[in-house]
Amino acid sequence: MIMLQSCSTWARVYSHMSPAKTDYHFYMKRIFLFMLSLAAVVSCGNNGEYTEQQQLFFSGDTVRVNGASPILSHIKTSEVAPVPFSSEFRTVGTARAENGAYAEVVIPFDGRITRSFVRIGQKVRPGQALFELYSPEFNELVKEYFQAQRTADKVKADYNRKQSLYENEVISKREIEESFTEMEIAQRDLESAEATLKIYNVDFTKARVGQPVSIMAPIPGEVVAADLTVGQYVKADDESPVTIADLGSMWVTALVKEHYIGSVTNDAEAEVFIDSDQDTPIRAKVLNVGNVVDEETRAVQVILSCDNSARMLKHGMYVSVHFMSEPKDMMVVPSSAIFQGEQFNYVFVQSSEDTFLKRRVVLGSSNDDKSLISIKSGLAAGEKVITEGGIYLSE
To answer: What is the pTM of this model?
Structure first.
């Protein structure tokens, strides 16, 4: 009779503890308590030793566990204290040449390639000839230069002659001033024609009508692309036939979410990994942390500089970036100790052997595998926090 009454009581207790809720922790706790109830029923049927009915007692943010409850055996705690901690996270990025270290050589005029001087993989220096191009447009520029030169010489000679006449009072002041103005205009036209030739790295003192124009390397580096065929007719709007890059060191543009941006600073160390070799880190240093958050991705661009002497990184390659902050003394708990409420995160702090307090905490950053989380506020050194089993205490 006692056994049946006790077992019936357990059934009524469980029925009262099963309101409809959607919280995962709630259901896990109820399932666990139901198993305890079944164990109690069996115990009742065997020897009647276990007759306690209520497992947990709630009072505000305080939870007390029945001393006879098996829940206590599933709870593990750990004392918190400041420890050196580095926040870590991974994100994606794109490798590219540094600014000024990558150049796609454009075709300045329509014309025909007459000579080629380079091949893929060749090292070049600034001003070195890459290929020659015969172009009627270029020849027109050379003609304009020679015309400007002849005009400037003629006007200058005319001014010198009139200056002598003016000194002898043969011509008026107005005439000599007009001649001087004409000379200045002609000189500016000549300088403009010379500047145009200089843009194309042409020595105007050696320019000749009908000669091809030599296209020069704008930067030092390696020829990483070359599509040159002697005799080929090309146009100014064609794709670049030659690309030069200095890839000894490269930049990686990483996308860092808002949540992590506070742990990234200039000159901080990081590691870059390529898909084909996830075991070999490439050392990197943060050059710049962007100040604009992308509205769609909610991420900030962070630029890192990488040593690429081993040529592991390729221009345009996708990479993963591992950020690590400098170690700082912080309160750190396992992620299993953190619970998420409707408005804030909390942990359970042990106040006595069977009593625990729900404590609101402000989270910091985590380590790489998210197993540890730093606590900005809410915990004091020496307090004991539930690291396992807290799910059975959450409402």
So the answer is: 0.59
